[in-house]
Each structure stands twice: as structure tokens, then as C-alpha cells.
Specification:
alpha/beta; globular; single chain; 41% helix; Rossmann fold
């Protein structure tokens, strides 16, 4: 090869290395996405329980969602040999599929290895339910993801229940929770984070469903 050819080959290799993900190392096997809305006004909302779960998981593993790409804040790491990404889409809840379709495409992660954590009005407050696929039941974040990627992803549903009065459901999930309400959701957020780890480490949805779909004893 000529000196000019070697020079261009070196340039292309350096450019490819610069474009590759620089943290976490290894192949990405799982993407865990918590659904929510960006902005301080939504931090304590029921609609942000997915964000809260991802942040709980990140804290337990001394991670920070400090990388910004794909319209998301995310972290990349390896846990017990499994490469994973924790992500908070910054697209707003109803457009979560825009972020996650780009992320899964870039890291070549199949939709079966996507875990989505979200709040659920149809589930009793404080209950946890794991499942794969199914309808969106009016959840526009789940609908957005299914429209872009298909429905064959794993869902961790955190029950918030229905409004106690005739309040609009949109206001109910978007308005800030009180300190007492936040405290009441802390145990289920912790269980959801544990469920994420169980799924990542074992890749056994049936086992995780058997453990976490039960009422806590």
C-alpha cells in the first residue's frame, strides 16, 4: 500500500474510533428506558415514575445519566457481564419512540431486549406488573414505542390507580405529588429497580414475573 493509502486508512480508523461509544465497554445487550417528562416541573409527577426507577437503579450502581445523545440522557455500563444502557428519553413522554428507535438501531439491540418502565392508571397504586407486549391501554408513551419498534418489548408497569375524584387523568399523572405520596411510591420504585436487575442478570422474564407480579409480602 502506498504511503498516501496508509495515511487515509489510519484517518478512517481514527474517525471510526472517535464515533464509537466511549464508555461502558463491550456489547450492549439490554436497553432500559424509564418514561417521563423532562423539566423540573415534572420531577415529582406520577408520569415520571419510570424516570425515578431508572435513577434509583443508577444510584444503586453508582452511575450517572450524564451522556446526551439520541434525544436522551443515558449511562452505559456492564453488570455481571451484561452490557446495558439506562436511558431517560428527553422527547417528552408521548414521543418516547423517537428516542428509543434511534438508540436501539445504533446499538443494534433487538426490541426483545428493551425494558420500558412506566406508570399505569389501570393498575392499583403501588402494584407492579411485568409483561411482554400487549396493548397500550391508552398510554401514549407505550403507543409511541410500539409504533416505531413493534410491541414485543418488556414492560414494567407501576400502578398509580385512577384519580380519587372526577379529576382529569392527565392532570392526575402530571401534577406534582406531595411528600407523602412520593414516600408511598418509594417501595414500588425500589422493587421496579430490582426487577430490572433480575431481568438483566437472568434474562428470565417468567422468573421475574413470578417474583414481582405478586403483592409484596
Amino acid at each position: 500500500m502506498s504511503p498516501i493509502g496508509r495515511l487515509f486508512r489510519h484517518f478512517r480508523a481514527a474517525k471510526s474510533a472517535a464515533q464509537a461509544p466511549s464508555d461502558g465497554g463491550g456489547e450492549v445487550q439490554w436497553i432500559i428506558a424509564g418514561l417521563g417528562n423532562p423539566g423540573e416541573e415534572y420531577q415529582r409527577a406520577r408520569h415520571n415514575l419510570g424516570f425515578m426507577t431508572v435513577e434509583r437503579f443508577a444510584t444503586s450502581h453508582e452511575l450517572k445519566l450524564s451522556r446526551r445523545r439520541f434525544k436522551a440522557n443515558y449511562a452505559q455500563t456492564t453488570i455481571e457481564g451484561r452490557g446495558l444502557i439506562l436511558a431517560e428519553p428527553e422527547t417528552f413522554y408521548n414521543l418516547s419512540g423517537d428516542c428509543l428507535s434511534a438508540m436501539l438501531g445504533y446499538f443494534k439491540v433487538p426490541v426483545e431486549r428493551l425494558i420500558v418502565v412506566h406508570d399505569d392508571l389501570d393498575l392499583e397504586a403501588g402494584r407492579l406488573r411485568l409483561k411482554r407486549g400487549g396493548g397500550d391501554a391508552g398510554n401514549r408513551g407505550v403507543r409511541s414505542i410500539a409504533e416505531r419498534l413493534g410491541a414485543d418489548f418488556i414492560r414494567i408497569r407501576i400502578g398509580v390507580g385512577r384519580p380519587p375524584t372526577d379529576d382529569d387523568s392527565k392532570d392526575f399523572v402530571l401534577k406534582p405529588m406531595t411528600r407523602g405520596e412520593l414516600a408511598s411510591f418509594a417501595p414500588v420504585v425500589a422493587r421496579a429497580a430490582e426487577a430490572v436487575e433480575t431481568l438483566v442478570v437472568t434474562a428470565d422474564l417468567d422468573r421475574a414475573m413470578g417474583r414481582y407480579n405478586q403483592r409484596p409480602g
